[in-house]
Amino acid sequence: MFIGAIFLGRLADKIGRKKAFLINLGIYSIFTFCIALSPNVGFIILFRFLAGLGLGAQPALCDAYLSEIIPTAKRGKYIAWAYTLSFLSIPAEGFLARMLVPLTPLGIEGWRWMFMIGSIGALIVFLTAHLLPESPRWLATAGKWDEAAEVFKKLGGSKTQAEEFRAKASLTQRDAAQQDRQSRPIFQKKWMKNTIMLYIFQIFQTIGYYGFGTLSPLVLAQKGYNISHSLEYIALSFIGYPLGALLSVPLIEKIDRKWLVSASAFGMGVFGILFGMGTIASMIIVFGFIYTLCSNIFSNAFHVLQAEIFPTEIRATATGAAYSVSRLMSGLMPFILLPVLEHQGATTMFAIVALAMIIVILDISLLAPRTTGRSLEHIENAYDDAPPIRADGVEATK
């Protein structure tokens, strides 16, 4: 996923969001099905690695694509709805695993069925994704004016809006005439603050958000619960994922993204420690549920935020590169947290998670820009030294 997020993320800025989406999904679907056919653990690791190439590039690409086709006033709300629907799969996966893993339907081991179901689901999406429009903002920056205008029309946009994007894209191309658009540095001075903020965020949010889902079964095993009870308790806790995502829908346009991320990160820190301290099943389920509830308010808010703070021509590259850091941290995380769990216990491990969330809160609070209710062009122009652009392409007076 680390490698895929870096290299395939750049691909979306070069060939378009829709084509990159289909390539990523095709890679994931094919090799996930191959996992189900693996004869031994070596092949599982190989095919999981190859599937991860496609999967790693997809979240940041989805954020970039959705942010570019949804109207400003509803951008956060609609993206939150998209993630809410997707997160319904998490508790469904938990209960499905609880049912299938101990069984061998049709003589095939339950864990193999889990991977086959995942790959078939991706295949269904792949076969229907051709109905999606290309991002009009990407088409405009690629110089495909007529196509961009046609997509704007289908999405309910006006001719004036299409001309505004065309004017902005023309000036962007003029500024980048001496260099390849995909090579434009995301560390240039104008975007340095946002880039640093997002890298710090992705390093430490991984510990909190992915730490729970990855390590909570091991926490319960350390507390003495067997695998069946652990899967059952985790599945009940995971109900918080879609409910948290749903709760973010009315909040994400009323509270600025940066403050919503900070508040939910605080909740993750508190209830993570309480989950680690839990000694009875009811406490474990309740605190795990509230933790996942907070974590998906957190997730929806930051997915919207990270795609809003870079211009169209480098949006997928910038968000993909930052997201790749989180994938690297996700791979390293068990080597960091498992020794703590084994030697110091779950409470200490979740105290480290809480510390990571404090760093996230400080990072977002101090460095992230306000984006709620602002158009992508308005956010981008705030970083420009040049005057804003009129619909006719003339630079207006500030």
Automatic annotation (TrEMBL):
InterPro entries: MFS_dom, MFS_sugar_transport-like, MFS_trans_sf, Sugar_transporter_CS. Gene3D superfamilies: MFS general substrate transporter like domains (1.20.1250.20). It comes from the Bacteria. It is found in: Cell membrane. Coiled coil: none annotated. The chain crosses the membrane at residues 21-39, 45-66, 78-101, 113-132, 196-213, 233-252, 259-277, 283-305, 317-337, 349-368. Its main location: membrane. This is MFS transporter, putative metabolite:H+ symporter. It comes from Heyndrickxia coagulans DSM 1 = ATCC 7050.
